[in-house]
Design goal:
Elements (H helix, E strand, L loop, with lengths): L1 H42 L2 E5 L2 H6 L3 E5 L6 E3 L8 E6 L2 E6 L5 E3 L5 E5 L2 E5 L6 E6 L15 E6 L6 E2 L2 H7 L4 H10 L9 E2 L4 E2 H10 L1
Antiparallel strand pairs: 1-2, 1-6, 3-4, 4-5, 6-7, 7-8, 8-9, 9-10, 10-11, 12-13
């Protein structure tokens, strides 16, 4: 019996080491999850800047505030200089180039992306097949038809938007014939592509895309 006791004393530190490593790994995972959760909570009801496509994809805002109890201004229509965006944040003023800035979320919760110094409103920020609308900021009332909103799409946050048309969607997914057939079955013309599914709370195009890709 004495021999077995001595042997157990020799094995025990090894087992303890493995157990400690396991506990350490679990602790690190918990800390990581808490950090992600804390970041998500901090971004809730926030307004701010998306510096990069990666930031947009990760929903990471810079110069962020909670617009329910804080105030700041994001001005992107500077007179005589449409290349910059000015942020007034916590008593300081920051000037950024639109060409170096991905986009922003305003205090109404709307999100925008900068393309060639113009802002495109992102209609469905949480989706992979992103949809946009571009509306010229000002135009004479008589020219309203000429300056009507135009719609775009991109596959993910990193791709450049292109006109939202049935043929462009087919060209983007040339080998996905099921997707082609679903487009033909559900949309008679390009303007139909922006139909919203009130029941599922998403654009019909995205619902079709997800049903095929999942």
């Amino acid at each position: 019996m004495e021999r077995w006791k001595k042997r157990s004393i020799i094995i025990s530190p090894y087992l303890q080491s493995k157990e400690m490593k396991k506990k350490h790994l679990i602790l690190m995972l918990v800390i990581s999850l808490l950090a992600i959760t804390r970041n998500a909570v901090a971004q809730k009801d926030s307004s701010g800047i998306y510096k990069t496509a990666q930031d947009f994809q990760e929903r990471k805002l810079s110069y962020a505030i909670n617009y329910k109890n804080e105030k700041h201004k994001i001005k992107d229509d500077i007179l005589f200089n449409d290349k910059i965006i000015v942020i007034k944040h916590k008593g300081n003023t920051y000037t950024l180039l639109k060409s170096d800035t991905y986009g922003y979320r305003n205090t109404n919760g709307e999100e925008f992306r900068f393309i060639n110094n113009k802002q495109y409103k992102i209609l469905n920020p949480g989706e992979y097949l992103l949809m946009y609308v571009y509306q010229p900021p000002s135009y004479p009332p008589k020219a309203a038809a000429k300056y009507a909103p135009t719609y775009f799409f991109s596959v993910g946050a990193f791709s450049l938007p292109q006109p939202l048309t049935i043929i462009n969607l087919k060209k983007t997914f040339p080998n996905n014939h099921t997707f082609h057939d679903m487009l033909d079955e559900n949309f008679k013309s390009d303007p139909d592509l922006i139909r919203y599914d009130d029941f599922h709370k998403m654009y019909k195009l995205n619902r079709i895309y997800k049903s095929i890709m999942e």
